[in-house]
Amino acid sequence: MSLQAQGMRTWLLQRLTAIYIAIYFLSLIVWCIFNSPVTYNSWYTLISQPVVLVLTILFYLSVLIHAWVGMRDILVDYAKPTSVRFVLLTGLAFALTAMATWLLLIVIGLVKV
Amino acid sequence: MRFKIYRYNPEKDQKPYMQDFVIDNVTDDMMLRDALLIIKAQDETFTFRHSCGEGVCGSDAVNINGTNGLACKIRCSELKQPIEVRPVPSMPVIRDLVVDMEQFYHHYRAVKPYLTVTDPVPEVEFRQTPEQREKLDGLYECILCGCCTTSCPSFWWNPDKFRGPAALLQAYRFLADSRDQATAERLQELDGPYRMFRCHSIMNCVNVCPKGLNPTEAIHSIKKLMVKDLV
User: Fold this and answer.
1) Contacts of A12 in chain B (CB under 8 A)
2) A5 contacts B200? CB cut-off 8 A
3) Which one, of B126, B131, B68, B56, lies nearest residue B97 by Cα?
4) What ipTM goes with this model?
């Protein structure tokens, strides 16, 4: 997605990621209710299952995309001078990419073990 | 009854100021427009736009105690005193309550608010079923007073790029029209991050519309058409 992303596509992406985030989160809460008390081991077993892991990665990617669209919307509204907006958007992209990379490292660590 | 009226004459005043007025013998059914006319009789340098006085022409949109509305449709007796009257927000003030509506009309013109037909025009008339005609209810009644657009924060932040609720309502009025054949062009024109997608469903437009229209719903309908177009 470029800085100049189109209106329709980003809007749709924001809605779709929102739905996925909601479904994932609710499922997790339901799981917690049925498996309480949640221990480190039960949590680890859940997250290590390949299907759950993939769904979790998708969840975090959704959060990152959702955050990108939402924050971009705020900056487009409020950060008027082009230079300020450019710096803030670049900073945001940098921060989100850093988070994505960190997430990747954690997931790789999980798969190894 | 006490009034606080926004006054500004760019030829004389350094900056705008609020002037107090008091008028007596205000009847229960007196509209704000009538009061403004009495104030104008007291001080003839005061000016504001008005015409039909029946909520049809949309000339006298002003900001009353912080909320946009038509002066001819609001009773003085229902307002908290002192009644503070200002020009509609975010528009350049020409004088007192008179604002420059050019930006508003620019966006209105940009959505091409007229039927576009590429097929040969029928010899007698366009036919519409009652159901097709019903789709235009709640869309065609707009009187272009500008209450909605000037109360929209998205319009305040990006008045040069965001079309605003009034223009978008009109855009949907023609998208919803069974006779119009420019759907693809209209949707194309509204895509992009600014023209329509600055709308965050704040719904100030719905709150203030003196005709009880719902621009937010129209904007959502346009988005639905775009999604249909995409998939």
Assistant:
1) 227, 230
2) no
3) B68
4) 0.80
Q: Which domain holds residue B87?
A: 2-99
Residue of A5, A8, A73 lying closest to B230 (CB–CB): A8
A103 within domain boundaries: yes
| A5 near B CB under 8 A | yes
Q: How far is CA B197 from the centre of its chain?
A: 19
Indicate the range of A31-35, A106-110, B36-40 predicted with least confidence: A106-110
The overall average pLDDT reported for chain B is 95
Model confidence pLDDT, tens digit, residues A63-86:
999 999 999 999 988 998 999 999
CA distance A85 to chain B (A): 14
Single pTM value for the model: 0.89
Q: Find out whether the peptide bond into B16 is cis, omega within 30 degrees of 0.
A: no
Of A4, A10, A11, the CB nearest to B223: A11
pLDDT at A5: 53
Tokens of B61: 């949109």
pLDDT (tens digit per residue) in B134-150: 999 999 999 999 999 99
Examine the domain organization and report whether B134 and B49 are in the same domain: no
pLDDT tens digits, one per residue of B113-131: 999 999 998 899 999 999 9
> What single-letter amino acid sits at A9?
R
Same domain, B146 and B44: no
Residues of A within 8 A of B191 (CB-CB) are 6-8
Split into its structural domains, chain B has a count of 2
- H or E segment to which residue A27 belongs: helix A7-34
SS3 B64: strand
The answer as to whether A2 is a domain residue is no
